[in-house]
Design brief:
Blueprint lengths: L1 E8 L14 E5 L7 H13 L3 E5 L17 H19 L6 E4 L3 H9 L1 H12 L6 E5 L3 H8 L4 E6 L23 H13 L2 E2 L7 E2 L4 E5 L5 H14 L3 E2 L3
Parallel strand pairs: 1-2, 1-9, 1-10, 2-3, 3-4, 4-5, 5-6, 6-9
Antiparallel strand pairs: 7-8
Length: about 240
């Protein structure tokens, strides 16, 4: 049984140790965080370790690191997403590397998960990229559905270090206990998701998340310890950590 373990990188955290643990990275493309140097460094790390390279486009809002909703016209948003991915592709070409997937960041990811119109805009932007990448989207979300409607390959994503609500959406970061910083708890949640078993949300008795990729954030306190615990638990259970 294969499962992907991904991390969002290039956002200012010391994420270099995570490349020894994960199978895919999602690299900030300059809109919410990152620049050409950070993208180049992330790609070089990934190429050396045969890790899948993905783009992590967000709202063009560095002041809030792309974590607040942004009133932006859909045409501008499509162009921004395409430009962000293209920027990463140009840098990846220096290593003859391919950007294999796209995972939206922050508020863009969460809003597209619940808004079918925004989800369609994001899916359209990703579908316009050549060669066509895979879309990583919150499991069970409008974004995942929009990606499939746009004939994209879609990976349903679960989270090891974030708490959920009973409707399968992520608890907002400003919610008490929204982050899971205990390695054992992160590992237990990741393993349950990988097995398709219920987990405990913050506002109900249980919710079941089905995912082919599990995320660990580089800026969660104790990120590396969490990631190592997650990987160890999955491997003990018979899963092979491998790119999508």
């Amino acid at each position: 049984m294969n499962i992907d373990l991904n991390a969002d990188v290039g956002e200012g955290s010391d994420d270099a140790p995570l490349y020894e643990v994960v199978s895919s990275v999602n690299i900030a493309c300059g809109a919410h965080a990152g620049d050409d140097d950070s993208m180049a460094g992330a790609i070089e790390h990934a190429v050396k370790r045969t890790i899948s390279i993905g783009a992590h486009p967000g709202y063009p809002d560095r002041e809030n690191m792309g974590r607040k909703p942004l009133d932006i016209h859909q045409t501008e948003l499509r162009g921004s997403i395409r430009d962000q991915v293209a920027r990463l592709q140009r840098i990846a070409a220096r290593w003859s590397a391919t950007v294999t997937h796209v995972k939206p960041h922050g508020a863009l990811y969460n809003e597209a998960a619940g808004d079918p119109w925004l989800a369609a805009t994001v899916a359209d932007a990703v579908g316009s990229v050549k060669p066509k990448p895979r879309l990583i989207a919150l499991s069970g979300s409008w974004l995942a559905a929009a990606g499939r409607s746009a004939s994209l390959l879609v990976a349903d994503e679960g989270f090891a270090d974030r708490r959920y609500r009973k409707d399968g959406t992520l608890a907002p970061r400003d919610t008490p206990d929204a982050l899971i910083t205990d390695p054992a708890s992160s590992a237990a949640q990741a393993l349950a998701i990988a097995r398709g078993l219920p987990i405990e949300p913050i506002d109900g008795s249980s919710v079941t998340i089905h995912a082919s990729s599990i995320c660990v954030h580089s800026d969660t306190p104790g990120a590396v310890e969490n990631a190592r615990a997650v990987r160890a638990a999955l491997e003990r259970a018979g899963f092979t950590i491998a790119p999508l």
